[in-house]
Design a protein that fits this description.
Number of strands: 7
Strand order of the largest sheet: 3-2-1-4-5-6-7
Order of helices and strands: EHEHEHEHEHEEH
Strand content: 15-25%
Distance between the termini: 8 Å
Shape: globular
Radius of gyration: 16 Å
Oligomer: single chain
């Protein structure tokens, strides 16, 4: 199985869901106070805190050095709120995936759940896709639909989406990592 690194910026619920199903060799985080770091410590997963005050090319070179030190072969973005630049894309071409909380290509970019909810869709969902130089434009690997009911609020829809994310992402990653 390929060695996996997860990139995250926030609470880390997807990170933890992945780590409970698949061996995660490293966490990369760009926020020193992100809750995901505490999850990594609790799960005894090493982490690397990125210095994003440097130019992107420089901090991505630092990330690549750390990934190589850990023998990382594949990257999963799980709430990592930075765009991946050419330096990292070239070093890990077709080896970076992301999960997005909508049925792409609809509602790409930030706040996919809120965009779908505000638009009034009756079906939304999640998409796992390869990362390319665009924003949520990479080749789709798998999607799962989530029904939006009249009783849903933005909060309940978010909970439903996250529950599905936790199931689908680990399943997709397992399939990719064993190839």
């Amino acid at each position: 199985m390929k060695k996996l690194c997860v990139f995250a910026s926030g609470s880390g619920s997807n990170f933890e869901a992945i780590a409970r199903e698949i061996h995660v060799s490293l966490l990369v985080c760009d926020k020193p106070k992100a809750a995901v770091i505490e999850r990594a410590k609790r799960l005894k997963i090493p982490f690397f805190l990125v210095n994003t005050k440097k130019p992107r090319e420089d901090y991505e070179a630092d990330i690549i050095k750390k990934l190589n030190e850990h023998g990382i072969q594949f990257i999963a973005l799980a709430g990592y709120m930075r765009l991946i630049g050419e330096t990292l894309l070239n070093a890990f071409e077709n080896k970076i995936v992301n999960i997005h909380p909508s049925l792409l290509p609809s509602f790409a970019g930030k706040d996919g759940i809120k965009q779908a909810f505000d638009y009034g869709v009756k079906i939304t969902g999640i998409t796992v896709h390869y990362v390319d130089s665009g924003i949520d434009t990479g080749k789709i690997i798998e999607q799962a639909a989530v029904e939006v009911t009249n009783e849903d609020t933005l909060e309940t829809l978010s909970e439903k989406i996250h529950k599905e994310e936790h199931k689908l992402y680990s399943k997709v990653l397992k399939n990719i990592l064993i190839k």
